[in-house]
Write a structure and sequence with these properties.
mainly alpha; globular
């Protein structure tokens, strides 16, 4: 009787969502986050003039490691502790991960958002091709025709690009290749009973953050970022309350916004989709 009373008094709205609602909400949330991440990365690298996509990538890797490790300690997520077999299990994912990360940020900084979005459509046929070769999947003719239509639209749009940037095009096509390869090899390597998606993300970032940091030092990017941040801090310290120069005040506001936005972008980009 008690069980019946409890079930009768239960709130019907507390039950699980209908079967089709959860995937829809997940897709909407994923799309919204993807759009906002690209938008904020673009603003940081162009509007606020952050000088290095490589250093930004290092910051995002560091934030990835920190957030995932703290989540693991608090039992919010789970992935296995490190052992000697993990690098062998992951190879070549760490290299694809950092290539995807840096090429994506580099192309974002050089292309307009509409053109970047259009050229990223080439990831779809590359993914289908690699899944056919590596995973042995077969796709119907209707899917192939649909993908061809998407690619044709991207080619037409790219042909009318008045602000052609060769470096940007090279980086975005590299990003397409790395994204497709990373997605396919992740499906091949990822075993939910072993590393899982969080383990793959965590150890990819762990293995590649030091090499990427060394790369940023060798290219001079880290030094440039350090100089810019120091310059912004000095401007903030030298600002006087009675300064009548509107241009100076605007410059300091931009520097402060650059520093604050950087922290927000690093955190928001942790789960950046491929």
């Amino acid at each position: 009787m008690t069980g019946q009373a409890d079930s009768a008094g239960a709130d019907p709205s507390s039950g699980p969502l209908p079967s089709g609602v959860a995937p829809l909400l997940s897709a909407v949330f994923y799309g919204t986050c993807s759009f906002l991440i690209v938008l904020v990365n673009k603003a940081l690298l162009t509007t606020y003039g952050f000088p290095s996509p490589i250093v930004l990538g290092v910051g995002q890797m560091a934030a990835t490691i920190m957030i995932l490790y703290v989540s693991k300690l608090n039992k919010i997520i789970h992935f296995p502790d490190f052992d000697k077999k993990i690098p062998v299990k992951l190879f070549p994912l760490p290299f694809l991960y950092v290539g995807n990360h840096i090429s994506g940020l580099s192309s974002t900084s050089r292309l307009s958002l509409p053109m970047f979005t259009v050229l990223r459509k080439f990831t779809i046929p590359l993914t289908l091709l690699l899944e056919t070769i590596i995973l042995g999947k077969q796709y119907s003719l209707s899917i192939i025709v649909s993908v061809f239509a998407i690619v044709l639209g991207a080619v037409i749009a790219a042909g009318s690009d008045l602000a052609f940037n060769l470096e940007g095009y090279i980086f975005v096509f590299l990003n397409d290749i790395f994204t497709a390869a990373n997605g396919v090899y992740t499906k091949q390597k990822m075993d939910p009973k072993e590393l899982g998606k969080y383990g793959v993300l965590f150890y990819n970032a762990c293995f590649m953050i030091i090499p990427t940091l060394i790369l940023s030092v060798s290219t001079g990017d880290l030094q440039q970022v350090s100089v810019d941040v120091l310059h912004g801090a000095v401007q903030l310290l030298q600002l006087c309350p009675d300064d009548s120069s509107g241009g100076s005040r605007q410059g300091v506001r931009m520097e402060a916004c650059d520093i604050l936005t950087c922290a927000w972008v690093i955190v928001s980009s942790v789960f950046q989709p491929p």
